Amino acid sequence: MLSASSTPCPSSSSSKCFLQHQGFLEPSQLSVKKRHNFLKNCSHGSNPFRRCTKGFSSSSFTVQHLSSKSHKRNPIHVKSEYEYASKPEDPNHLSKQLRAFYLFTRPYSIMATVIGITSVSLLPLETISDLSPAFFVGMLKALVPAVLMNIYTVGINQIYDVEIDKINKPELPLASGDISMKTGKLIGFISLLMSLGMGIMFKSPPLLCALIINFLLGTAYSVDFPLLRWKKYPVLAASYILINRGIVNQLAFFAHIQKHVLGRPLVYTKSVLFGVAFMCILSTVIALYKDIPDVEGDQEYGIQSLAAKLGKKKVFWLCVNMLLTAYGAGMVIGALSSSMLSKIVTVFCHCAIALVLRVQAQSIDLNSKASVSSLYMFIWKLMYAEYFLLPLVR
After folding, report:
1. pTM metric for this prediction
2. Closest by CA position to 328, among listed 372, 281, 361
3. Which residue, 185, 194, 100, is CA-closest to 146?
4. Which DSSP category does 61 fall into?
5. Mutual orientation of helices 32-42 and 14-21 as an angle, nearest 10°?
6. Who contacts 241 (Cβ-Cβ below 8 Å, separation ≥6)?
7. Angle ∠(127,133,118) on CA atoms, nearest 5
8. Which candidate in 22, 137, 155, 201 could, as Cys together with 188 as Cys, close a disulfide (CB 3.0–4.6 Å)?
9. In this structure, is the dihedral angle defined by the CA atoms of residues 328, 333, 336 and 337, taken in order, positive or negative?
10. In terms of DSSP H, where are the helices of 232-339?
11. Does residue 386 contact residue 114 with C-beta atoms inside 8 Å?
């Protein structure tokens, strides 16, 4: 049984004081809201202890009993229903953020940049001795800023296309909200600064020229400013990818290795000129084909792509026939090679790829966005394959 305290309690807080003087309750052990409700209910009445104890139940608080040796009262530990448990940290938070960044960088595009620059860097090599540490360092000096510039260009495109992507590509991190707009802009800005900074620091005019052109064209393609937003115009949209992927990436990075890494006079070889011609066709196909699965969103936001104007089917087969023509040219160039090994490999591989492409194209359902998009990713794989074949064209 509880015994009354010898110290009188003020009437305005008799219940609270009563429990404190009995050693059961510490004011700091009640949450603010619980203490407010406690005092509100207990401030009036002839029997405050009876009234106040109605507010406590076994589910509201627990009494910790002391052992018989201590003979001391422990305070009541109150667990208020108004107190919210802290949200446990998601153990997968870091992996989700890394995956969001991975998707933001558009990895298939970065893969094309890495494979393309590596392939073009091999074209100036004449002997095995050219594969020196200086060569690999020079290639890395081209790869790192080029990848950073790639992140900037795909990033700024997602920033200005976020509303369209909510329709066409809702899985992208900006459209889905996995990455905030502020974070996306920060990633793009830092990537741009690092890329241009490295281009200046490495003192290679062809490399810096390639980065600046990529920056200007990528910005003009995406940003919604007067005379810009080139993606709204089919010819300008195709020109951006054609100039960047087809011309600049081949000529500038070849010159970087040939002149500023190997220290030789700049002479463009048969292989690099073939690479320019083939990649111009392939880049134009990518520029035209990428709009086929995005027709609905583009039409809603006034993007008059060639697919929106002519229809999916016409643009689809235009792209396929352009690629088949390019592979036919590749077989002819391969057959004219002075090396028997080069002749056999280039002719056979270009013929085999053309047949696979034809079979793939016939199986595509133009009414299925997933089916159309699968061939788009296959075309990027064709670019990777061609870059592997390019050093064999001699």
Report:
1. 0.70
2. 281
3. 194
4. E
5. 110
6. 283, 284, 286, 287
7. 70
8. 155
9. negative
10. 234-241, 249-260, 270-289, 295-300, 306-310, 312-335
11. no
Cα separation, 181 vs 175, whole angstroms: 9
Tens-level pLDDT at each residue, the chain (394 residues): 444 444 455 544 555 555 455 554 444 444 444 444 544 455 444 454 444 444 444 444 443 443 444 444 444 444 444 444 455 556 677 888 899 999 999 998 999 999 999 999 999 998 888 899 999 999 999 999 999 999 999 999 999 988 888 887 888 899 888 999 999 999 999 999 999 999 999 999 999 999 999 999 999 999 988 888 888 787 888 888 889 888 999 999 999 999 999 999 998 988 999 999 999 999 999 988 888 877 767 666 666 777 777 788 888 999 999 999 999 999 999 898 888 888 999 999 999 999 999 999 999 988 888 888 899 999 999 999 999 999 988 7
Question: What span, in angstroms and rounded, lies between the C-alpha atoms of 183 and 229?
Answer: 22
Single out the residue of 125, 128, 26 nearest to residue 76, CA to CA: 26
